[in-house]
Design goal:
29% of the residues lie in helices and 21% in strands. With 282 residues, the chain is an alpha+beta fold. The strands form three sheets. It has a five-stranded antiparallel beta sheet. The longest helix has 17 residues. Bound molecules: adenosine-5'-diphosphate and magnesium ion. Adenosine-5'-diphosphate (ADP) binds next to strand 4 and strand 11. The site of adenosine-5'-diphosphate has 19 residues, from strand 4 and strand 11.
Amino acid sequence: MPGDGPRRGDAFEHDIQVGALRPAFEAAGLELVEIDWRAPLDDFEGLSLVLLGTAWDYQDHPREFVTRLEELGERGIIVCNPPPVVRWNAEKRYLRELERRGVAIVPTVWLDDAGHGDVAAAMNQFGTDRVVVKRQVGAGGLRQHSFSRDAMPDQDWRMGRPCMVQPFLPSVVEEGEYTFLFIDGEFSHGVLKRAAQGEYRIQSLYGGYETDFTPSAEDLAGAKAVVAALPFDDLLYCRIDMARLHSGELAVMEAEAIEPYLYPEQGPGLGERLAKAIVARL
Ligand SMILES: Nc1ncnc2c1ncn2[C@@H]1O[C@H](COP(=O)(O)OP(=O)(O)O)[C@@H](O)[C@H]1O
Ligand SMILES: [Mg+2]
């Protein structure tokens, strides 16, 4: 988490994650130190491996962030996930590639910018009364919009950057968003993320909460198909977020390989699995 200034409302997730990993790492003979990604390069001196944590401001400085990871790589530090993965994953356009590879994604209109007319056109195209407009480079549900026919943007409203428009999936509110955690390509644990009353974003910043989730064989197969479609095979961790379409099929909302919160509370063996995967890389 960004080090200076007031802590974000979801900074407690950073504490939970580090608290869960530390004992497991120590047991595996690994020393864990927390370093802000903006710290001077020399602060990283002597590290064997950098595990991206909760760098939850990278989306506002994606180029700076990837450059920093590349600098660490040039210093011989193993970066997980590797900079090419991060570069690829930072723009949600990667979803189009997954779609080409046969994965079900949430139907999406891709735009360089959006205004009132684009929102209305997307509603017509999807045959829906409600859409979500998100940044192509975004995280944490921040600066995203939900519009409906009776709550349209102003005529002069502009998103002001590359964005994506999706039909609003009622299942996110009704049943929740599903998360599947993978460590070194192996399924680790599932999480069901629910939104607070009157909200549709499941992030803790908006009152969202998580519960344990044991996926059905069919849903797990859907998540594994997403992992198999990723154009990289060196991911230390990845988190597949999915939501149910009208058809009953799960569609990928995002395949997060940069700095996902790993939901350690729902995955008791997470620390050990991560430690093992790290040791194998050293
Ligand atoms: N098409 C959609 N229908 C319903 N809810 C959505 C939709 N897209 C996003 N959301 C909600 O907004 C949250 C943030 O969107 P997401 O695509 O995961 O972006 P981010 O990278 O910001 O997490 C999701 O977790 C979900 O709760
Ligand atoms: Mg998300």
